[in-house]
Amino acid sequence: MPAWLAQVSYLVAAVCFILGLKWLGSPATAVRGNRLSGLGMLIAIVVTLLDRHIVSYQVIAAGLLVGSGLGLWMARSVKMTAMPQMVALLNGLGGGASLLVGGSEYLKARLAGSQPALDVAITTQATLLIGAVTLTGSLIAWAKLEERMPGRPITFPMQKMVNALVFLVIVVLAVWQVVRFDSPAWPFYLVCLLSLVLGVLLVIPIGGADMPVVISLLNSYSGIAGGMTGFVIHNEELIIAGALVGSSGIILSQIMCKAMNRSLGNVLFGAFGGGGGAIASAKSAEGLTVRQVSAADAAVQLGYARSVIIVPGYGLAVAQAQHLVREMADLVEKRGGEVKYAIHPVAGRMPGHMNVLLAEANVPYDKLFDMDQVNSEFERTDVALVIGANDVVNPAARTDPSSPIYGMPILNADQAHSIIVLKRGMGSGFAGIENELFYNPKTAMLFGDAKASLAKLVTELKAV
Amino acid sequence: MEALIGSIVVFTLATFLGVELIHRVPTMLHTPLMSGANAISGITIIGSLIVAGGGHGWISTGLGFTAVVFAMINVVGGYAVTDRMLQMFKKKPEAK
């Protein structure tokens, strides 16, 4: 294959990625967009196989088969509630691949005894660092989300100092290798090792509830690692794709942070949340009472409501009760009530996660509304039904400057004519804060597992 | 040096393009967007293929093989799971 043809093919692949990402922006074209992007990847792979000086195809064929098989199996078998873990794991593998490519390019140059150009030397070290951090950081994020390790922040004294020191040592060793090609091999291995350690150190102090931001950020890192690999092997296709992913990850992390009213720095270094109970509640609940309601009474209320807004939280997904919610909503609609879903940007475990979970339960997407679209409607709504959500409907975020979540944008469920809250018990949300919504005279609490409560509601609604 | 500058130009422009593209995506599609973008980051497969098939001794080939497996899981898993999610958005609510 002539060089120009390979270049043109890589350009076509890059256009596929760009158009694919653009089409991913609308539900009508998203499927096509993803497939176009996949086509771009296929083109890039085929061109590489034909163009580059590849001498042995057996190893490649085996790798492609094993990887594709495992990837397909994971994609087919993963539960939709486990999507964040899946993305974390895939991210980690992408970072790992970059690390391996960077490492073997370095070793190859070393064996050949050829001095690499300065830019290659620099980007090789950057690839090692970012690839390794992405790999182990993602694995820790995966373990926290999968609950293989405690979700609470793991902290130790002088943590930031230690992290900074590790990073500094990596930089010094990397610079040494860049300026002195005849340096011994151990700094190379030490850079790899310390970078892997740094990935672990950076993610362990972050609470389980903040993992969505971490995943977005690691997604960005995996893109940047890919881009750096492109600098190492002089391939612009890699640089373009890596930059696209790098920027998308940053944007998504920013969106998540904004939804939680926290800075990225606070998420990464604040050791916040995860049920550590470190944050004292600003207002104590003493002297306040909650009003409990039976499933039968709640069903009557829902049955005669003209408008209902459902506020789903992650508790709903944990209970695997999405299908029951839809069944209940169908019953309300059959009786003439209007049902909408209000989706907070951080409902679920990653941006847009709740939308996927509800889509899986066949809830049509035109019934799902973003916070900005739906917030003005609560005051005209008969019943706000809060299922497994807590902090995202806590009015303290609007009214109580001493609350740790003050300023976080919330869903105005408290403005509805009446509020029904489905909740397991009186435990507090991940931020460990009392929710005065539960003590509001308009609020009725229906305690119990979300799935069991919804099943009761469905039965009762049929009887109303 | 000129080649490096050219690459930096490409990287910078692509970063801005990415920002523009992603800003327009509605929240609803953020999860598929993330896994879809994640699949694109599997582009390291190109580097992995070159390393694995280059015939530069068994260490390089071994590392390359592992890299191909990793990157391919990233690519195939990413695209397949994104497709699976997006199909759900396409589904019409079943007739009552």
Description:
The complex is a heterodimer of chains A (464) and B (96). Chain A is α/β, with parallel strands linked by helices. Chain A has 17 helices and six strands. Chain A has three domains: 77 residues; 199 residues, no CATH class; 169 residues, TPP-binding domain (Rossmann fold). A six-stranded parallel beta sheet of chain A has the order 3-2-1-4-5-6. In chain A, α6 packs antiparallel against α7, α8 packs antiparallel against α9 and α11 crosses α17. Chain A is elongated. Chain A starts with a helix and ends with a helix. Chain B has 96 residues and is mainly α. Chain B has a domain of 63 residues. Chain B has four helices and no strands. The model of chain B has no long low-confidence stretch (mean pLDDT 87).
Pair with the biggest interface: A-B, 114 and 86 residues
Question: Could you give the distance between the termini of chain A?
Answer: 73 Å
| Helical amount of chain B | over 70%
Note poorly predicted spans of chain A: 273-284
Overall body shape of chain B: flat
- Our measurement of the CA-to-CA distance between the termini of chain B, rounded to an integer number of angstroms, reads 66 Å
Low-confidence stretches of chain B: none
- Oligomer designation: heterodimer
Percentage of residues in helical conformation of chain A: 55-70%
Which series of helices and strands of chain B comes N to C?
Answer: HHHH
Strand order of the largest sheet of chain A: 3-2-1-4-5-6
Structural class of chain A: alpha/beta
